Amino acid sequence: MAWTVEFFSEAARDEMEALPEDIRARFERIVDLIKSKGLSEMREPYVKHLEGKLWEMRMKGKDGIARSIYVTASGQRIVILHSFMKKTQKTPTSALVLARTRAKEVE
């Protein structure tokens, strides 16, 4: 069974669509790699574990660095919880809080 990638909500989709075009293209490339190789084959620089069930997709483009925080769900699904541009080296606390809140609602 292949992995599927979905957004937690329209708000999560809108966050991704608000990112620059080159960042969105990098996101699509990572998604394609996950679908073709499987999540177990993915490592840095594409994905990285954050804490607990939270993982991040790591995208870099000419406009900067962005992240999409996700969790895995039943049925080999990846649920994108939150996407944002990084401005500092550390992941913002507000991004983690939002992702944790949304993750509680994912089955």
Describe the structure in your own words.
Helix content is 34%, strand content 35%. It is built from 3 helices and 5 strands. Strands 1-5-4-3-2 form a 5-stranded mixed β-sheet. The longest helix is centred in the first third of the chain and has 17 residues, at 21-37.
Explain briefly what this protein structure is.
The chain is α+β, with helices and mostly antiparallel strands. It is 34% helix and 35% strand.
Mean pLDDT: 94
Helix % is 25-40%
Q: Note the beta-strand portion.
A: 25-35%
- Radius of gyration, CA atoms, in whole angstroms: 13 Å
Overall geometry comes to globular
CATH homology-level superfamily: RelE-like
Question: Order of strands side by side in the largest beta sheet?
Answer: 1-5-4-3-2
Unreliable stretches: none
Number of DSSP-assigned strands: 5
Helix/sheet category: alpha+beta
Q: How many discrete structural domains?
A: 1
Put simply, the count of helices is: 3
Return the CATH architecture: 2-Layer Sandwich
Look at the structure and give the CATH class: Alpha Beta
First-last Cα distance: 18 Å
Main pleated-sheet profile? 5 strands, mixed
Write the element-wise H/E pattern from the N-terminal end onward: EHHEEEEH
CATH fold-level topology? YaeB-like fold
Write the layout of secondary structure elements.
Layout: E1 4-7, H1 10-17, H2 21-37, E2 47-51, E3 54-61, E4 64-73, E5 77-86, H3 93-103
Give descriptors for this structure.
single chain, 107 residues, alpha+beta, YaeB-like fold, five-stranded mixed β-sheet, 5 strands, 35% strand
